[in-house]
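Handout, section B. The chain below has 224 residues.
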Amino acid sequence: MSELWQQIVADFSNLGSPAAGWAFLQVLWIDLVLAGDNAIVVGALAAGLPVDQRKKVILIGIGAALVLRVIFALLVTQLMQVVGLILAGGILLLWVAWKMWRELGHHGGHSAGSPEIEGDERSGLRPAKSFTAAAWSVAVADVSMSLDNVLAVAGAAREHPGILVVGLLLSVALMGLAANFIARYIERYRWIAYVGLAVIVYVAGKMIYDGFVNPQVGVLAAFA
């Protein structure tokens, strides 16, 4: 724990340096955009339920996202040291970016949406028809989105362990405390989402490059 704290102090004391400052800025944008996206998906899937069931599904969705982010954070930060997995993670993030681009450019029509979450009425997702179906759909979506979030943060701050830890904690905090607030502003100011998308593409490209040539974890090192 003391070593972890020292890493956090070291990285944030050097936040004025271009490398550390850029890493933290990337992490911040990724956390903001993906927390809002997670909230919109959960709200859209729960939109067709009665009020009491809808609120339960939204709470389940946010709670599951919090737990999954913690679990994935513990796993991904270790797995990033395995040869080839950075390359695989970068390719996965490109897929995440493609999905985001499609969602931003092509809304799938309007629905009632959940009053608790602003912006979910233009998500393009069909609401579930029962509480069980909604809870299951939200759980499946949370697995994907939580992994996307943790992988993107880990890729952006891989060389700055202190920023990486704070970024993962920040993603959990934003999902639990401010996801709906963020979703509202992303829906109102679309450029926020486009900047987040550009950051994710950049991180994916860097991960793919490092996944090939990095002397410790690049696939070319395995054949050297």
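Note. The chain has nine helices and no strands. Compare this with the example in section A.
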